[in-house]
Input
Amino acid sequence: MEDEPMLKIRSRTDCPCGTEKMYHDCCRPYHIGKAQPDTAELLMRARYSAFFFRLVDYLVSSTHPDVRGKDLRAELDDVVDDMLWRKLRIISKSKGGADDKKGKVEFIAQYHCDGEFLELHERSRFRKYKGQWKYVDDKG
Ligand SMILES: [Zn+2]
Output
């Protein structure tokens, strides 16, 4: 996959996912397909960063095919522009390690939407598909 110029500019900034790494050394390799997250938590962080940068392609491709509805892209396109993400805090996780097949990550993500400050508190479920972590749903 070719690098998008947009991503190049952003690669020198702090990664929005909160690891205190540069974006270049954190979630970017996942976003451009150069690496795959080893753990459910890393995928969770990469998806948060993808929401932050409005990378709808990544949000679609990192969703498990079993739950990837045909309207998913349109649904994401509808909401990504309205949300300004501020902070991600991982609360807890279970399984989701490199050798696991399933995992859960509980997090709080703070964002602004229509001038309102909001918090998303979710327990996400993740499952491996062909050896790669994918997002399933928020019913963990
Ligand atoms: Zn990151």
Residues 5-137 form a domain with the Nuclear Transport Factor 2; Chain: A, fold (CATH 3.10.450.50). The CA atoms of residues 60 and 73 lie 6 Å apart.
